[in-house]
Design brief:
The complex is a heterodimer. By secondary structure, chain A is an all-alpha fold. Chain A has a single domain (10-42, 75-281), classed as MetI-like (MetI-like fold, Orthogonal Bundle), CATH 1.10.3720.10. Helices cover 73% and strands 0% of the residues of chain A. Chain A has 12 helices and no strands. Chain B is mostly helical. Chain B is 77% helix and 0% strand. The chains are: A mainly alpha, B mainly alpha. At the A-B interface, α6, α10 and α12 of A face α1, α6, α7, α10 and α11 of B.
Chain lengths: 283, 317
């Protein structure tokens, strides 16, 4: 156990020493904290309507302006972040997690099991993930949980391929033979011995996946699927404002900037993570 | 090589069959009764029942699936739109060129700018040009494409009055959609190209080329690029799949009546023959691009080409 914590710590130190990912961590931590603390920070209630102040441009009272019902855009972006971040995180964990389990099964057992799983993955990914996402989301209907499922389904095949590829290169190593020879159970070999050695690309992929899922969730809301207004999810805010783009551009500008900034921060962290976990770059 | 292509084409048909099965099943279990939607709000229960019969919805799942697969893959008939009562294929043939034009132009832009940016960054590794190019790439990757589209409309249509904001017409209507579709892919390709080029930077043959006094340009484009091309080709193939999948959103922002928007409208109006046909077309394009990627591997890498030629009976992977 001691050794593993030290590897985690070493990785974290290496990420922090990378200036790009340090910036990413700071931005991302800031966004997460202000969104979690939304009830404390937000100057107004999330659904407070103020019909006297409809479509007010950015001002001191309303830093990001107000929408067609006089709701404060800044407040709604803060609260919306909770939905967007949770969507991205849940979908990435669920998708990559399921992918990792299926991929380990394929890689470890090999033979017919592997062929069958990989053929299913070929079919699964014959539709680009965004398209699959649109279809599943239309089938399941709007809502948070349904959107998480729709998003994560597209992430599964990548996870499977990554883990399987890694296992293929580890499958014949001595430590696995040793574990088998001392009669370790199959799940114990797979999850305690094999998985820690092959999991790093999936962690990197899942990290990047958070950002991609936030973008995809926003796109889904924008075309009328996924999480719907009046839920203040970032994409739903954009969908709400799209008809007023010419008259009230700030309603489109701010949610988009926040999405871009969040995804940028996550991508920077992901890049740092990849470098930090790359055994070739380890000293 | 011919054998390999035939094998892959057969595999593609299987994939399309499987995709049809999946899409049919997904739509079959989608809540809501298409017959009721099509019959209209004022229809009586009897009218709806009639409509179900005409649309073949009163048959069992297996029968409906059989009908659909039979007409699609044996008769090559994609059926009639439920909403407009016209053959789906006619409408698709009108819309397809628009989507293809956007997709292929975005792909070309992607290929060209991505590789040029990547090489530019790699040859200036560690200098400010590198950081600047890669910084831009990072920002491009992070911005949602539909939001960039909205911002471009604000800037180029609303403020500068240079380009039309939506609809179709001359080439000027396609400029913004193409750029928006390509942006993310350009950035991914640029990063991939840079990484691949840096990967071959310290190979012996590069040192040799430098030692014999070869020109810098020839070293980069003639020695490095061909050897770094494999991962770049993969990322280009994925890029095309992404562009295809992104067309519904981009077309809906710019109101371009292409395949993607056709599919979205059909999903909302429960016009399933249209949805199935569009999805099949998208799957077809994805499969074709994957096939081209694999063929490109063989074209680029003599080792792979040799394997296909000599080992014909063994399973090639």
């Amino acid at each position: 156990m001691n050794k593993r914590t030290s590897i985690v710590r070493e990785t974290l130190e290496r990420i922090w020493s990378n200036p790009g990912s340090r910036v990413g961590i700071v931005i991302f931590a800031f966004i997460v904290i202000v969104c979690l603390a939304a009830p404390l920070i937000a100057p107004y209630g999330v659904n407070d309507m103020d019909l006297a102040n409809m479509y007010k441009g950015p001002s001191l009272a309303h830093p990001f302006g107000t929408d067609g019902m006089g709701r404060d855009q800044f407040t709604r972006i803060l609260y919306g972040g909770r939905y967007s971040l949770a969507l991205g995180l849940c979908a990435a964990i669920l998708g990559s997690g399921v992918g990792a389990v299926i991929g380990s099964i394929a890689g470890y057992f090999g033979g017919k099991t592997e062929t069958m799983i990989m053929r299913i993955m070929d079919i699964w990914s014959s539709l680009p993930s965004m398209l699959l996402c649109i279809l599943i989301s239309a089938t399941l209907g709007a809502g948070f949980v349904n959107t998480v499922i729709a998003l994560s389904i597209g992430n599964v095949p990548t996870g499977v391929r990554l883990i399987r590829g890694q296992i293929l290169s580890e499958r014949n190593k001595e430590y696995l033979e040793a574990a088998e020879s001392i009669n370790c159970s199959t799940p114990s070999i797979m999850f305690r011995h094999l998985l820690p050695n092959v999991v790093s690309p999936v962690i990197v992929d899942a990290t990047m996946g958070i950002g991609m899922n936030i973008t995809m969730a926003a796109a889904l809301s924008y075309i009328g699927l996924g999480v719907q207004p009046p839920t203040p999810e970032w994409g739903a805010l954009l969908a709400d404002a799209r008809t007023h783009i010419l008259n009230y551009p700030y309603l489109i500008m701010f949610p988009g900037i926040v999405i871009a900034l969040t995804v940028l921060a996550i991508n920077l962290i992901g890049d740092g993570l990849r470098d930090a976990m790359d055994p070739k770059l380890r000293k | 090589m011919v054998k390999y292509i035939i094998k892959r084409l057969l595999g593609m048909i299987l994939i399309l069959l499987a995709t049809s099965l999946i899409i049919f099943t997904i739509l079959y279990f989608t809540p809501g009764d298409p017959a009721r939607t099509i019959a209209g709000a004022t229809a009586t229960a009897e009218d709806v029942e009639n409509m179900r019969h005409i649309m073949g919805l009163d048959k069992s799942y297996i029968e409906q699936l059989g009908d659909f697969l039979y007409s699609t893959f044996i008769k090559f008939d994609l059926g009639d739109s439920w909403v407009y009562n016209k053959p789906v294929i006619n409408e698709m043939m009108i819309r397809l060129p628009r989507t293809l034009f956007i997709g292929l132009s975005a792909m070309a832009l992607n290929l060209f700018l991505g590789i040029v940016m990547g090489i530019f960054a790699a040859t200036h590794e560690g200098k400010w040009q590198d950081s600047l190019t890669m910084g831009f790439a990072m920002v491009f990757i992070s911005c949602p494409d539909f939001w960039v589209a909205l911002m471009m409309i604000l800037l180029f249509s609303a403020t500068l009055n240079l380009l039309p904001a939506y609809g179709i017409g001359g080439i000027q209507y396609y400029i913004m959609p193409i750029i928006c579709s390509a942006l993310g892919g350009i950035a991914v390709n640029a990063r991939q190209t840079r990484a691949s080029i840096l990967g071959v930077f310290r190979e012996d043959y590069i040192t040799t080329a430098k030692a014999k006094g070869q020109k810098e340009n020839i070293i980069v484009w003639g020695h490095m690029l061909p050897n770094a091309l494999m991962p770049i080709i993969t990322s280009i193939g994925n890029g095309f799949a992404k562009i295809v999948a992104g067309t519904p959103v981009i077309e809906s922002v710019f109101s371009i009546p292409g395949l993607g928007l056709y599919m979205l409208t059909a999903i909302n109006s429960r016009d399933y023959p249209v949805v199935r046909a569009c999805v099949l077309f998208f799957a077809f394009f994805t499969a074709i691009s994957m096939l081209l990627v694999d063929l490109a591997y063989a074209f680029v890498d003599p080792r792979i080409r040799a394997r296909y030629q000599t080992v014909k009976k063994k399973e090639t992977k």
